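Progress narrative, Year 2. Work on Large ribosomal subunit protein bL35 from Nakamurella flava advanced from sequence curation to structure prediction during this period.
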Amino acid sequence: MPKMKTHSGTKKRIKVTGSGKLRHDGSGKRHNLEKKTSKMTRRMGKGGEIAAPDAPRIKRLLGI
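Result:
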């Protein structure tokens, strides 16, 4: 039986906390930062927790 591989895109975007919860970074903070206000970029930087209904699917992608 072959080993299950982790999804490369998912492992770059989602981190697992010590308690096993999944966290993601905010979006929109990669480019065009000069035209965005400081207030907007600070707000974009905040990530969040993955919603409970989505967690099992993402854990399967990560191989957890």
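The longest strand covers residues 14-16. Strands lie at 14-16, 22-24, 48-49.
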